[in-house]
Amino acid sequence: MNQEKEFLDEISESNLERSNIVITDDVFDPDFLEIYPNSKVIWQNVGDKEHTVTSDDNFFSSQIIRPGETFEHTFNDPGEFGYHCEAHLETSGKIKVNELIENNGVE
């Protein structure tokens, strides 16, 4: 196995983890998150109201997330993904999925 593949495998196992976003009654916290492909984002509703997590382009969407519940989505591809709560349109956020840059023999 070459060093490049070992490096990418190591990143995928250790650094591409879960990221958490807390939903309160009027915000996603944080409202902007940068991650890498194959990372999982978990939204947790800690507020008193029901919410959704719906991407602006309908790429992903949760069911209603009741207080104390969570929603998970794994982002496989690079890009920027805006999202909002269907019940509270002013509650919004963005996920930026950065590209993995391969080390082409440069050390």
What this model shows, in words?
12% of the residues lie in helices and 36% in strands. It is mainly beta and 107 residues long. The protein starts with a helix and ends in a 10-residue tail after the last strand. The model has no long low-confidence stretch (mean pLDDT 87). It has one helix at residues 3-15, and strands at residues 18-23, 28-29, 32-35, 39-45, 54-55, 70-75, 79-84, 92-97. It has a four-stranded mixed beta sheet with strand order 2-1-4-6, with no helix packed on it. Strands 3-8-7-5 form a four-stranded mixed beta sheet, with no helix packed on it. Strand 7 (79-84) and strand 8 form a beta hairpin. The protein has one helix and eight strands, in the order αββββββββ. The chain has a domain at 20-86: Cupredoxins -  blue copper proteins (Immunoglobulin-like), CATH 2.60.40.420. The longest helix is centred in the first third of the chain and has 13 residues, at 3-15. 20% of the residues are buried. Residues 18-95 form the EfeO-type cupredoxin-like domain. This is Blue (Type 1) copper domain protein. Pfam families: Cupredoxin_1. It comes from Berkelbacteria bacterium GW2011_GWE1_39_12. InterPro entries: Cupredoxin, EfeO_Cupredoxin, ET_Amicyanin.
